[in-house]
Design brief:
The chain is α+β, with helices and mostly antiparallel strands and about 180 residues long. It has helices at about 5-10, 35-45, 65-70, 90-100, 110-120, 135-145; strands at about 15, 50-55, 60, 80, 160-165, 170-175. The chain has 2 domains: about 5-105, Conserved hypothetical protein from pyrococcus furiosus pfu- 392566-001, ParB domain (Alpha-Beta Complex); about 105-150, no CATH class. It is about 40% helix and about 15% strand. A hairpin with a 6-residue loop joins β5 (about 160-165) and β6 (about 170-175).
Length: about 180
């Protein structure tokens, strides 16, 4: 697809009844009952914020799990976008890419732990973000373990120049011990 075609494509959000949407029988992605429950929790916490992508014939291209969660939540309407201009082969490839590409991403574990620590004890419901209780415990424990002082400190040498950065606000300074 050319850059011009990409730039000119406009998606229009239309709200539709999830029970009227047709699942793709070739959808290779599976959704366990546990994952549908996670999606339901996310919808309850944040709303339905990611439109379902539809082929011009109304068949679901992306969003099968979210539609199942919406049905379980008995939602009357969900946001959808009809994507025009893809061949059948492109649609089939897109569906696979949509499901796989996010799985190829990683996590900056330190930043993730910092975000979780910032959310912990606040008003956010951590059960709605897709991590299991044991994953959350491990990440938060890792943060605590990493923040603890090492068992042995190296000898202090006043001639060593040091670089410092506040892990909370990012303020950086350097200096030589006087």
């Amino acid at each position: 697809m050319s850059k011009k075609a990409i730039a000119e494509r406009r998606l229009e959000v239309v709200y539709r009844d999830p029970f009227d949407l047709k699942p793709d029988p070739r959808n290779a992605r599976t959704h366990s009952p546990e994952q549908i429950e996670q999606l339901r929790a996310s919808i309850r916490e944040f709303g339905f914020t990611n439109p379902v992508l539809l082929r011009p014939d109304g068949m679901i291209g992306a969003g099968h799990g979210r539609v199942e969660a919406a049905k379980a939540e008995k939602l009357n309407l969900v946001p959808t976008c009809v994507v025009e201009g893809l061949t059948d082969a492109q649609w089939r490839a897109y569906v696979l890419a949509d499901n796989k590409l996010a799985l190829n991403a990683g996590w900056d574990v330190d930043l993730l732990a910092a975000e979780l620590r910032a959310l912990e004890g606040g008003t956010a419901d951590l059960s709605s973000i897709g991590f299991s209780e044991s994953e959350l415990e491990d990440l938060l424990r890792q943060t605590i373990d990493a923040a603890q002082a090492p068992e042995a400190f190296p000898e202090f040498d006043e001639a060593i120049e040091t670089e410092h950065k506040c892990p909370k606000c990012g303020y950086a300074w350097s200096g030589k011990a006087a």
